[in-house]
Amino acid sequence: MGTARLGPGRIVYWVFCALVFVFLVAPIIVIVPLSFNAEPYFTFSEAMLRLDPEAWSFRWYREIIQNEVWRNSLVNSIVIGISATLLATVLGTTAALGLASPNMPARRAIMGVIISPMVTPVIIAAAGMFFFYSGLGLGQTYLSIILAHATLGVPFVVVTVTATLAAYDPTLNNAAASLGAGPWTTFRRIQFPLIAPGVMSGSLFAFAISFDEVIVVLFMAGTEQRTIPRQMWSGIREQISPAILAVATFLIVFAVLLLFTVNWLRRRGEA
Amino acid sequence: MAGSLRFPVDPHRRTQLRALALVAPLVIYIGVTFIAPLGTMLTRSVYDPVVADVLPETLELLEHWDGRTLPSEAVFAAAAAEIKRAAAARSLGQVAGRVNRVQGGLRSAVTRTARELRDIEVGPWRESMTAIDSVWADPATWYAIQVTGERFTARHYANALDLQRLPDGSLAPQPVERRIYLKLFWRTLLVSTVITLLCLILGYPIAHLIARSPAGRANWLLILVLVPFWTSLLVRTTSWIVLLQTQGVLNDLLVAIGLVSDDGRVAMVYNMTGTIVAMTHVLLPFMVLPLYSVMRGIPPTYMDAAASLGATPVQAFLRVYWPQSLPGVGAGALLVFILAIGFYITPALVGGSDGQLISNMIAYHMQTSLNWGLAAALGGVLLVGVIVLYVVYERLVGVERMGLG
Questions:
Q1: Which domains occur in chain A, in start order?
Q2: Residues B133 and B113 sit within 8 Å (Cβ to Cβ)
Q3: What ipTM was estimated for this complex?
Q4: If you count Cβ atoms within 10 Å of the first and of the last residue's Cβ in chain A, which end, N or C, has fewer?
């Protein structure tokens, strides 16, 4: 197996792998050309396949850009996403620094609790949060959604920063201390710059979680707090229009940008 | 430790306290914004004071009721007074909804009774109420009031497990036509198992391919795995609708190449097939990433050694490679399974009526039927299952190894 013999087994293996990659990526790519459909259909018209320029248009892009509801939901998504990300990044990075300490007591148990929002079905968390925040009189507010999104995103920050800290050499702290730096100076000048790529990746994860979250928003948001995923949700369920495909294309481009940024940060962190 | 030079007094304890101080804000935050809400939900599943608060006197008098005959005039008088009061305070609707879930038809009966009682000032209440609606002559009505009047109750959990409590206090299975939830739990477990297996079958070879590729190509192949991982769940679900619907891309293709006729288009979405295909796509990266991180650590020389000792490729794979990749299989399979049993969005959008899972039922009771006690109990049962799996995952894999690429 170590050498590249091209037997029938290997051909099957390659073809199978290629098909799985197609399965992973093709459904996402197929959305993009369809979003330029001049007709309100969800499939390629014959004219589109003939590459007839009449069949292609920016119609749906114009529609979403001109639509105030979509613009509002974009603003909401960004405001909620950035606020939740800031909160999750500060809390998560601080906690990861503590968890990296060799003297951290009850490390496993605490880690288990901190990670739990990541595996708990969001429907359960969202139901609980709905009862909880409406009991506090915070139903249908930006604050409750931001707090909820930070809760869902913070485990990703902790996991990412913890992984980065595992590669951090703690003797650097000793070196800084022996040169007279206090703990805060050491953190600010030495440790943070070195783990910054990990912190950045973690915060991008947290932002992506909030930017894509719909269940909490479904349960807790009023019409005023509608986000992009919430708007897509109604779009898919109620008035299915190719305008959704234009939004989807925008989200795909956004996801690819995020992915390449995180990939770049990770390689920088390793270097 | 750095501090030990300047603080010779118990440096261990000092760093320990510092570590705790750093972790404390997040632990408190998770406690308040996550554990407390889960606690609120679990409380809702066993605690319901509404009926007890609205009909206190009726319930107290009902304690002496024998459960078979009609309650006494005193009970009717108390009920009439409290129903009038509740109707005036607009809290009767909640009561009517609750008793209606135990005994169908009571919602309208209670509302009508309240309306007609407005004009009646004096008793005998038993005759007036049974005249307004014959349900008041039925002991089952009073039993329903008694059951919903318990502040602490297991009836939501009984309901969630397709059980009912009989008037004599014993538990019995629901009548066949009302047994919904156990079937749905089983369906959720079954579908999650199928999806986990599909992810393993699809994910194992490509994880192997990536692990054996030189660094540059591995990075590009990983990006292909991560594109769906980063793409919005709603986008991926939309994609599958576009691809699989009867007027969709795949059916058009099948018709174009003549595999199916134009009126024989295949229903691949808005049913269980749609749920399984779309969920497998969504969860596949969660299988590939842990598999890849384990496989990367398996030295390729082991397979060469097995081959040089005369093993066929199949033998070498089964006896050398597969056992070493098992930690990755376990980690990936557990993660996919845990995520699958709580899935909501994808089944809700592409599942149609037969592709719904337990989460969709929780959402239904949260948003449509407004039976929050039952929603909370269903959530409680699901939560117990997830916690058990999570503890297993923690023991076998360790939570910080939850690979994310």
A1: 8-55 (no CATH), 69-240 (1.10.3720.10)
A2: yes
A3: 0.91
A4: C
